[in-house]
Amino acid sequence: MIKSFIRRILGKKPHTTKKTRLQRIPVSQHGLTRVQILPCALKVTDTLQQAGFSAFVVGGAVRDLLLSKTPKDFDVATNATPEQVRDLFRRSRIIGRRFRLVHVMCGGDTIEVSTFRASAVTEEDDSSHVTDDTGRIVRDNVFGDQESDAERRDFTVNALYYDPSTEEIWDYRGGVADIKRKTLRIIGDPATRYREDPVRMLRAARFAAKLDFHIDETTRAPIAELAELLTNVPPSRLFDEMLKLLLSGHALRAVHQLRAEGLHQGMLPMLDSILEQDEGKRFITAALHNTDQRLQAGKSVSPAFLFASLLWHELQIHYQKRLDAGEIPAPALFAAMDDTLDHQRARLAVPRRLDGMMKEIWSLQSRYDQRSGSRPYRLLGHPRFRAGYDFLLLRAESGEVDQELADWWTTFQEADETQRAAMLIKEPASSKPKRRRRTKKPNPAPQATND
Questions:
Q1: Which of 117, 126, 164, 349 would be 34's cystine partner, CB 3.0–4.6 Å?
Q2: What ranges do the domains of the chain cover?
Q3: CB of 87 within 8 A of CB of 102?
Q4: Measuring CA to CA, which residue among 314, 279, 302, 289 is closest to residue 395?
Q5: Which CATH number fits domain 9-197: 3.40.720.10, 3.40.640.10, 3.30.460.10, 3.30.230.70?
Q6: 318-359, pLDDT tens digit by residue?
Q7: Active-site positions?
């Protein structure tokens, strides 16, 4: 309200961006046909259009299809309100508080449907658009038209609207041309847009790595100076964005992109210091490379395993401090795990549901050194054996442990019982703890009683 009052007194206009003429690009020029669209998304757009509303497949799906990539999901934008969308689809629900969306379900697919948003704050509706002292938008729930919606999107390559009924792409900001130039360009004034939502700086690094695009120099210029604004972003939102970056299939390049843009400070301890150490750098590089390979091969990646890898050397630092203070190793290790996770959550809200698996992976590592007696057999039966073994392979690949140890476990788990028995390492007799012989104490003589 204060900002609205100042604008009325000083006559300042709300921030707007320079708009370009709408281009409606026919299929003969872009080659994207409706058969490439997910059937559930077609059902949503067709139903909305038949009800008299505008409806477009929007954003990343259009961008990825133009790049001959498989979209992760298909989003739809419309001029229908969330309530109107929900009334048209039996299997749908309204979600969100900052800005309401509708999830429409078709079989196992879910389509996110958003209502066109307003591009600028009006004096009459200022209560719906609230920013904090740094300019970050904390409440923004204003509907608008399609052109305004395009102005609100982050990058030109994400501000593309595909109409399945005509197979046209509606391009307000030159996104198709930027895709051809492999250029990532923010919409509007970069500094203002980053202040509105600092996470856009992380998205710039993620998209540049994922799409193999270069960041436009004007888009890139304010990032290093404004990187500290990320400290004002809720840790849970930072975690969501960081997870997207790490699970993009291009995590290794994205991490280097973060460092190149000066966005790494405070995001993850390993980005601040571990990559400066040769051993830590080899381990993190191996972990991220392994993650990228699995994702590109269509395999799944456990977030718990990924963050156990990223925080492994941070754990070693906390553990060593406790050992140096004279603590007993086993309790010190588990206390160091809590230290590591608590320190991380102050900046990045790693969900506590991941704690159990991360701690098991970490605690299992010392057990892989035990290759005698019945201990290897018990370890094979552990529910986290495979995750711990994969972690051991990363340690061997980075040179942290001998490759011979990893090879031994690779062979042991695939061998038959006879081969396993032959592989067991016999402990030297001197290393076995001597059992104390218990001597029987003589029974006390019965005491006389007075009858």
A1: 164
A2: 9-197, 234-424
A3: no
A4: 279
A5: 3.30.460.10
A6: 999 999 999 999 999 999 999 999 988 877 788 999 999 999
A7: 73, 75, 154
